[in-house]
Each structure stands twice: as C-alpha cells, then as structure tokens.
Write a structure and sequence with these properties.
By secondary structure, this protein is mainly alpha-helical. It contains 26 helices and ten strands. Helices cover 48% and strands 4% of the residues. Strands 1-2 form a two-stranded antiparallel ribbon. A two-stranded antiparallel ribbon has the order 3-4. It has a two-stranded antiparallel ribbon with strand order 5-6. The chain starts with a helix and ends with a strand.
Length: 590
C-alpha cells in the first residue's frame, strides 16, 4: 500500500510541474531595491525564506549557516564576498590524483567514478559556492561528456575540464571561450584535436564539428538577437547568424591543434608522443598546442571577417585569435549567454527586460562573467519575493540540484570524507543524470525545450528540464530518495568495505534535533518545511504529510521492544522527509 501511495504522489508531483513554468516577466511591480542601480537588490532580506530563496539560485542549496550569513550581510555584500573567493584548491584533478595513488597501491585505479565523487565533494562542501554553481551551469552550456568514448577514456582530463570551468567561471568570457576551445577533452569530444588542413590530393577537408558548435552552442546561436534576447526580424523572419561558408572558414581555423608536447613533430600531433618516445604526462590537462605544419594556410572567411592567406608560414595562433575575438565581440553573445545563465540559476522564462539588463551588465563589463552573475542574481526580477507566488516564475530543479539541495539542507556528511555518490545515470533507480555525462553536446535538455501539448505550449513557455522528466524518471527519483533517506546515499565506503553507505543525513550522524519531534507530527512537519521548503508547504501537502506521519504508530516502551520503538520513530522521520522531497514545492525552484 505504501509503495502504491508514494508512487502516486510522485506522479502527481510530476504532472503538477506542468503548471509551474518559468517567469513570463511579471516583475514590473517589484519593490524598489535599496541600491545605486534601481534594477539591483543588494540590501538585507526581510525573512529567512527570502535569504534561502536567494541561496537556491546562487548555490547548490541553502544551509542554515549560509542563511544566517545572508541575513546578516545582505545580498550584495554576501555575493561580493563569494565572488572574491579563489577557486578551491586543485579541485577535481587533485581529488582524482589522490584517489589514483591510493587505488594503484591497492592494485586498481581511478576512473570516472572518482570524477563524479570530486564533483560532489566540491558541490556539497566547497566554500566558494557561487563559483562552483556557475561552473556547473557552464558545464551544461559548454558540454563535454564522459559518455563519449574519447572523453570517457581520459577521466583525469574530464576532471581537468571541470577545474578549468571553475577557474574561468568568474573571469572573462573571451578567456573562457579560448580555454574551452583548446582543452584536449573538448578537442576529443568535438573532434578538432588532430584536425588537419584540406588535401586536394586525398579529398580531405577540415572537420567542421567544433566550428559549427562553437557558434551555435557556445557563443552566438542560430539567429541574430536584439539586446533583450528576442530574435531580430527582417520582413517578419529571423535572420541566421551564420551559414555553411562561415562554418567552412571557421573549420580551417581549428586545424593544426593537438596534444601538448615539448616539440611539435608529427608523432606528437597524432599520438601525443615524440619520435624519442617522450609523452607529456599532463597532456590531458594542458591546452592543445599549435602544429603549423597541419594548419590550413588558405584564406579563412567567417562572420564578415577574413584571415588572409598565410602562404608557407601557417600561423594557427593568429587564426585562432581572430576567430575568438570575432566571436566574443559579436552582439549576440551577451543576450545569448545572459538568457541561458538566468535559466540555469533563476527562472526558465525570464522577461525580455531581465535578459536585457543582464546582457547590458555583461557588455558594459567588457564580457565579464562576474558582472553577468552579479546582474543575474541581484536583479529586481530575481529578488522580488512575490515571484514565488507566480505560477509562471521559476524552474524545474533538475535531479542533481534536487539532491544537492536536499543533502546540504539536511547537513549530510561523508563517512569517508570523499562523498562517494558515484554514477546516478539510471532513470529507473537513480537521478537519470550524472554531472559531465550528458547524452550529447546539447546537454541533458535544450534551453528551448517545450513539452508537447499542454498548458506550457499554449502559453508559449519553455521548461528545459522537462525533457528528462517522465514516468520512469519520476518513479526512479522517488525510489532513490526513499532508499537514501533511510540508508544513506552512494556506495558503502571505499571498495564497498564500510558497513553503511558513505553519505549520511544528520539524523544518522548523531543529530537528534528532528528525531526529538517525531512524537508531535505537526511540529516535525513544520521543522521539515522550514529546512527543506523554506516555509512554502501548502495546506494540502502539510495535511497529507502530517496524516502520513501520524499513521505510523509508535508503541509504548515495555520490556524488550526498544528496537521496535526506535524503528517506528525513525520511520516517522523518514516519511516526513521523503514526502517533502518529492513534493512539487521542493522539485520546483521558485
């Protein structure tokens, strides 16, 4: 009966998401912020719920300590302190290397699981939460995937790609674009590592894969945009940003780049090893180096720019600089990137005014991602708490962010200190997604995805995350959370030798603050509401959870029934946490 009831509630939650699209822009009546810029809100939140709402957008999930800090400092000062923090240590590569050393000593080795563990370690415990959260958003725009055989075979390189995104997340877009373009994992993923100039003799032409995607997905998009992100129309029709000739010209730019070696001989270009057999151990981390002998020297035309014929002195660095400078200066970049970052952090359907303000801040900052993040998170549309009541504002929280928010709110800890959550790909038994394991370069979901039919399509709204939301994934999430709340998340310590799963919630780590409330269902549900939902629990949901908790009888202690009493007390807590974690109020970020 319980399984049938809970799955029914989960499916109801999944269907209810269709009524909770992204912000259609109704923020014109937002309270005026106490800031120099009238479109920015930098003062202190009025309530802890407002502070938590801000942290849901800016981090991997609110914690009590972070809420206290935002309440004390205000939005602006807290954010500035975050933006000033350096990227945490060596991050993912340092973690992977440490695990590789330990596992090799035990006769095995590190692989993709250690990349995922490194991600979760940073997401759940790193102090520079804003940087980490923005880097995760960028990983879903500048996509590589370990599902791909080329990238998947170099997990240390994938860890390095995450470190690169963390390092560049709050820097200049132009620097980010170059770092992405020259990273060997992107070179493997989109096949421009080892890309060669054309050969009339053999009929070979430069690979066009990266040339196409760097324009379509990483910079300017398919159609010309106005400053507010709306399509620029000519005779009522959108205008394409590039054509096949632009792709061909750009493809010539991305020839002659390959593995980092100390020399630029042909062996290094093809096999990352010099004629003398020397191999650069960090080749999977270091930017690809230019090999002029393989670079297209012919004229390159793209986006209204021409790189002149370089004759016998091919210059891949000069070609690349012209291409990246041209892309970074394109007027589409600001609204194209602003809208996607708003979608990843705040709301699926921002108003055109919101996009325009964020794009303007990015442009005025000379392509500064820090300025863009500041504009996105402090905008009056993001900070107006009344938007939480709007049925057309917010975003469906993807499963990775649901789990991170839940674990941070519940003060979870790792027994090993290594956060061994591992692969969560399976939609039927886990989250249906794992970081850096998207099925294609288009990510797990497209920014413009609209579920077919229904109210969203009729209203002209998008909901990207619904692309991976279906009956299987909804039930899989339900079962994953039920098991995790009771037994913990991830694997049983290193090499499965521990007696329990590695990531445990506070109530399994000696914190009895919620367990002490189980005799009073109303008080327990209120505490869960404040911790997980920031007071957003509706009356109907509250009544259902209180009823479910109260239906679990706690026997009177007598004689030898202590274990049964303790189990029933815990079952009450599990039920409250579980039902809250699958409710629309938690799944939809408002």
């Amino acid at each position: 009966m319980w399984r049938r009831l809970l799955q029914g509630l989960a499916l109801t939650a999944g269907l209810a998401l269709a009524a909770c699209g992204g912000g259609g822009g109704g923020s014109e009546g937002a309270q005026e912020p106490a800031a120099t810029d009238p479109d920015r809100v930098t003062g202190k939140p009025a309530t802890r719920a407002e502070a938590a709402r801000f942290l849901e957008q800016a981090t991997f999930g609110p914690t009590a300590a972070d809420i206290d800090a935002v309440m004390a400092q205000g939005y602006g000062p807290w954010l500035e302190a975050q933006l000033a923090l350096p990227a945490t240590g060596g991050g993912h590569v340092a973690y992977w290397d440490a695990r590789q050393a330990a596992l090799k000593a035990a006769g095995s080795g590190a692989y993709q699981s250690e990349v995922l563990d490194a991600f979760w370690t940073r997401a759940l415990s790193a102090p520079d939460q804003v940087r980490a959260r923005v880097a995760f958003a960028l990983s879903q725009i500048f996509v590589i995937s370990m599902v791909d055989g080329g990238v998947g075979n170099y997990p240390r390189g994938a860890a390095g790609y995450l470190d690169m995104l963390n390092q560049q997340a709050l820097g200049r877009y132009r620097d980010l674009l170059e770092s992405v373009s020259l990273h060997p994992m992107m070179g493997l993923y989109l096949s421009h590592l080892g890309n060669q100039r054309e050969s009339p003799k053999t009929g070979r032409v430069p690979d066009e894969n990266y040339a196409r995607e760097v324009m379509q997905l990483f910079s300017i998009g398919l159609h010309e945009l106005n400053a507010d992100g709306t399509p620029r129309l000519v005779n009522g029709q959108p205008v394409e940003t590039y054509g096949q000739q632009d792709i061909q010209g750009m493809a010539r730019v991305f020839t002659g780049f390959s593995w980092a070696c100390q020399v630029s001989d042909d062996n290094c270009f093809f096999w990352a090893s010099s004629r003398e057999g020397e191999t650069e151990v960090d080749r999977v981390l270091l930017p690809m180096r230019p090999y002029p002998q393989f670079h297209a020297f012919q004229e390159k035309r793209f986006l209204g720019v021409t790189v002149a014929d370089q004759g016998s002195r091919a210059n891949p660095e000069a070609s690349l600089k012209t291409a990246l400078d041209t892309l970074a200066a394109h007027p589409n970049v600001a609204p194209f990137l602003a809208r996607q970052l708003i979608q990843r952090l705040v709301t699926s359907n921002p108003s055109t005014a919101y996009v325009g303000r964020a794009a303007a801040a990015f442009q005025q900052g000379g392509g500064d991602l820090k300025a863009l993040v500041r504009a996105v998170l402090l905008d009056k549309e993001a900070r107006d708490s009344r938007q939480a009541e709007s049925p057309t504002f917010g975003r469906l929280r993807e499963p990775v962010l649901r789990l991170s928010a839940f674990l941070r709110a519940m003060e979870a800890g790792s027994d090993s200190g290594a956060w061994l959550i591992r692969n969560t790909d399976d939609a039927g038994t886990a989250l249906g997604m794992s970081p850096l394991r998207a099925p294609s370069v288009f990510n797990f979901y497209r920014p413009g995805y609209v579920p077919p039919g229904g109210a969203l399509a009729s209203a002209g709204l998008v909901m990207p995350e619904m692309q991976i939301t279906h009956e299987t994934s909804v039930v899989g999430y339900v079962n994953y959370m039920r098991s995790g709340i009771q037994y913990g998340f991830g694997q049983n310590g290193f090499d499965w030798k521990a007696s329990r799963r590695d990531v445990q919630l506070a109530h399994n780590r000696g914190d009895n603050s919620l367990l002490n409330l189980v005799e009073t269902p109303e008080a327990l549900v209120e505490a869960v509401d404040q911790r997980l939902l920031q007071g957003r629990m509706g009356a109907a949901l509250r009544a259902e959870i209180v009823q479910a908790v109260a239906s679990i009888a706690i026997p009177v202690r007598s004689g030898g029934n202590d274990s049964w009493v303790d189990a029933q007390r815990r079952n009450r807590l599990y039920a409250a946490l579980f039902l809250a974690s699958i409710a629309p109020e938690f799944i939809v970020q408002k």
